[in-house]
Amino acid sequence: MANDKRIDEATGVETVGHEWDGIEELNNPLPRWWLWTFYASIVFAIGYCVVYPAIPGLHSATAGTSGWSSRGALAHEMKEADAERAGIRAEIAATPVEQLASNEKLLRASIEGGRAAFKVNCVQCHGAGAAGAKGYPNLNDDDWLWGGDIATIHQTLQHGVRQPGDDATRMSQMPAFGRDGILTPAQVQDVVSHVRVISGQEKPSGSSQRGAAIFAANCAVCHGGGGEGGRNVGAPRLNDAIWLYGGDRATLTETVTNARYGVMPAWGSRLDPVTVKMLAAYVHSLGGGEAAPAPAAAPAQAAAK
Q1: Do 274 and 266 meet the contact criterion of CB atoms below 8 Å apart?
Q2: Which residues are documented as binding site for heme c?
Q3: Selection from 54, 133, 117 nearest residue 283 by Cα
Q4: pLDDT tens digits for range 107-149
Q5: Which domains occur in the chain, in start order?
Q6: Where, in this chain's numbering, is heme c 2 bound (predicted)?
Q7: Which residues contact 177 (CB under 8 A, 6 or more apart)?
Q8: Residues annotated within a binding site
Q9: Which residues, 6+ apart, have CB-to-CB distance to 19 below 8 Å?
Q10: What is the CA radius of gyration of the chain?
Q11: What is the value of pTM for the model shown?
């Protein structure tokens, strides 16, 4: 590699003095437009570092003379969005949850707000599509422990399931029949056989016949004589194909032996009342929601008046 500068005969431009395998480089000056663009970029970068947060420090970046920050911008946008929604949220707050369906605008806003809240707070257990998982109920079907009308769903969301210190929380208490010695292991198996028969999973047998008598003495008070369940105590229906933990023999044996005590947060203590109401509207809209129960018939004397 030579290091001799010379004037290129073809262009009249001095070379840089280096040669690589016979290839030489001309020492052409940079275009002025490029230089001015480069200088302007330097000036802009300096100005940006002065005006906006830019230079990292030990705990934070320089603040910048404008006082702007991405966090501040986000907070401002969220405040503006909250202001835009304030009117509709006030209307939802003033409307009893069971009357939301009578106002299409409020119902639509509640469902969309509940959809957003569900994605933040509920998908971890119930799944993105609310299909649930083992131990977490599917919210798309019409199988409800305490009821599926919007007011009942709202009550469940508000106070949760098995939440200590809340007298209004949903509470069901199934005995641990095997663990506490109420039933022997053989009797547990007989009860499991009976449950699997009434749910259509097994054919009747001697075990299921014995289990029917044990079921009538120990389980029917909550689950009903035919396993139809009892919403007044949150007892699940046992004569269908819907299972929270599973309907196979091993899982049912575990359930009867040790019982299940699932919990759900009391969202009324974690979310604002309007958000809880919107969650109730969204869950009710998923496909398994029920109409509100008809009011009880007035007594004959009152009707006569």
Answers
A1: no
A2: 122, 125-126, 174, 219, 222-223, 264
A3: 117
A4: 999 999 999 999 999 999 999 999 999 999 999 999 999 999 9
A5: 85-168+271-290 (1.10.760.10), 171-258 (1.10.760.10)
A6: 174, 219, 222-223
A7: 183, 187, 188, 191, 218, 256, 257, 259
A8: 122, 125-126, 174, 219, 222-223, 264
A9: 1, 2
A10: 35
A11: 0.75
